[in-house]
Design the sequence.
């Protein structure tokens, strides 16, 4: 934990109404400035107690406080440093260690995730039984998406018409295995807008899940592999369609101590900078757009997805109330903190439902699973799609 970054906080309280856990519980130590106070105590000699670790674990890492802070406190760096220290210095309960070992031995590895696919249809039914064994196991089962058939991605998708750019595309771990249709749509959209899309073999997790959970060694190992993969492909720009992945990859220089050698851009960020050339066909329905925290707060990307959606004829874009409050997904948060995540998910589902939209659009697989599960609990029937899927349908003139 960097003492200089800690001292940047003047305890003004502007972060309080933006912090999801403070909004839920109203507890000072479950606010950003309260956690910074605990960080300062530890730097000054107080050991990491179970209570202290609990307050750090309860943070979603959504970075809404970073957006709200008038003093420019780098809470994002502080919480990542703190979580690494918690993992180093705090002895967790054996059951908790076992669950964390399962999650981080499974989710960052696409081939292992693939083994779960045949039984995904049973997950929701098994959730109550797994919850009795451990709440996190029940949460994982309850979040499981209804996976479509696997779609094998080619190594190269050629530009349609005149080639305007050559880009690499991250397939990811959760995105690639649980939402293959999003990657397929992303590649088609890029190709229709004049890009050769390189999709290198040997991809896996970019390290985002691990770095956000304080598992720095695993994060660096996965990040180095990702950098090697795209350097070998020889691309200057890597397009990412998952908010958490893009956020972490943009911080590779800090994580690895060296620049990766390519530029990382979110899909919406890249498309707006490139400019549209392909014809948009009408999609006549109302859409609610959900701001993924690691897109809006960590990357500062809010206008670009909305600009792309508004560019589709017939589409009506509706704003979700309390847009800045996290949905409760936050990487692995909805697995390790299922009660708080459920409360936030239900709150977000209610806000989405109030828009009366026919479709919810998100730019992160975790958010998609979290909000879809909350909507199912509430008996709602709203469909959920990624920004890439909406653009793909409009560009190809097909139904969504």
Sequence:
């Amino acid at each position: 934990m960097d003492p200089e970054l800690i001292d940047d906080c003047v305890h003004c309280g502007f972060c309080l109404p933006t912090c999801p856990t403070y909004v839920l519980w109203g507890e000072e130590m479950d606010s950003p400035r309260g956690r910074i106070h605990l960080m300062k105590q530890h730097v000054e000699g107080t050991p990491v107690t179970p209570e202290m670790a609990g307050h750090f674990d309860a943070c979603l890492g959504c970075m809404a406080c970073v957006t709200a802070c008038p003093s420019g406190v780098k809470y994002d760096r502080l919480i990542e440093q703190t979580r690494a220290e918690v993992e180093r210095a705090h002895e967790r309960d054996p059951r908790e260690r076992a669950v964390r070992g399962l999650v981080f031995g499974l989710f960052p590895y696409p081939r292992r995730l693939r083994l779960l696919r045949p039984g995904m249809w049973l997950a929701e039914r098994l959730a109550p039984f797994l919850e009795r064994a451990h709440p996190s196991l029940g949460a994982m089962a309850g979040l499981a998406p209804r996976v479509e058939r696997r779609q094998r991605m080619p190594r190269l998708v050629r530009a349609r018409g005149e080639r305007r750019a050559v880009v690499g595309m991250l397939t990811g771990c959760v995105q690639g295995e649980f939402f293959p249709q999003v990657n397929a749509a992303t590649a088609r959209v890029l190709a229709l807008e004049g890009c050769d899309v390189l999709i290198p073999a040997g991809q896996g997790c970019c390290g985002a899940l691990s770095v956000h959970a304080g598992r720095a060694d695993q994060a660096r190992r996965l990040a180095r592999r990702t950098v090697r993969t795209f350097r070998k492909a020889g691309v200057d720009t890597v397009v990412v369609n998952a908010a958490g992945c893009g956020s972490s990859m943009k911080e590779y220089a800090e994580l690895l101590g060296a620049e990766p050698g390519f530029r990382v851009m979110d899909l919406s960020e890249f498309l707006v900078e490139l400019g549209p050339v392909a014809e948009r066909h009408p999609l006549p329905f109302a859409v609610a757009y959900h701001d993924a925290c690691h897109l809006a707060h960590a990357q500062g990307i809010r206008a670009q997805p909305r600009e792309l959606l508004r560019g589709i004829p017939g589409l009506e874009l509706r704003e979700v109330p309390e847009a800045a409050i996290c949905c409760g997904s936050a990487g692995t948060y909805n697995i390790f903190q299922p009660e708080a995540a459920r409360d936030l998910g239900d709150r977000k589902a209610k806000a989405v439902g109030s828009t009366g939209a026919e479709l919810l659009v998100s730019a992160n697989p975790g958010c998609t699973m979290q909000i879809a599960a909350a909507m199912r609990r509430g008996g709602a029937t709203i469909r959920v799609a990624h920004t890439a899927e909406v653009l793909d349908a409009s560009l190809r003139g097909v139904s969504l």
Remarks:
- The chain has 23 helices and nine strands.
- The radius of gyration is 20 Å.
- The longest strand covers residues 165-169.
- The CA atoms of residues 208 and 245 lie 5 Å apart.
